[in-house]
């Protein structure tokens, strides 16, 4: 793995100095020398582990991303029923995220009303519920909708949302309610991480709006 893929620009420049001969430019007790002794160890660790890293913010703060294949293989959707609905109630959002998505308590109330056209799911990584999502079919428009997807605040940033959407696609492809391949969802324009996720998977804006949210659609193959 190249250093520049996960170091900030400044770190990358200094790392180049280190490779040239940092010992001849900075004394061993210098903070710069110590910093790049640490960086060299990080680079060696990354190469040994062969795992992708990323930066967060302007500092050289490296965080391993979950292996996507491991996430997909170990993430499942399980229908919410009497055995796991309490776990869904315990899911939490980060501060400020409540304005973007309803809590599963409200969503499950909607699922009770629309029971003949929707399926609420717990999102599980291995045996732990890490999120919630509901798939609902609109018989009037002949399209599937993804509602109220959320990942618990302690489990965000691990790739679970993307993997869960792909699992939703696989479920919808079975045509559980109607013979449609169109998948629709809405998202606040302020929710930039979610918009990036949806567009990255191929969702495109339709031009329609639902109050302060825009509608995006995806066509299954």
Describe this structure in words.
This protein is an alpha+beta fold and about 220 residues long. It contains seven helices and nine strands. The chain has helices at about 10-25, 30-50, 70-75, 85-90, 105-115, 160-170, 190-200, and strands at about 55, 60-65, 75-80, 120-125, 130-140, 145-150, 180-190, 205-210, 215-220. It has a seven-stranded mixed beta sheet. A hairpin with a 4-residue loop joins strand 5 and strand 6. The radius of gyration is 22 Å and the shape is globular. About 25% of the residues are buried. The model is unreliable at about 1-30 and about 30-65 (pLDDT under 50).
Note the main attributes of this structure.
221 residues; alpha+beta; seven-stranded mixed sheet; two-stranded antiparallel ribbon; disordered N terminus
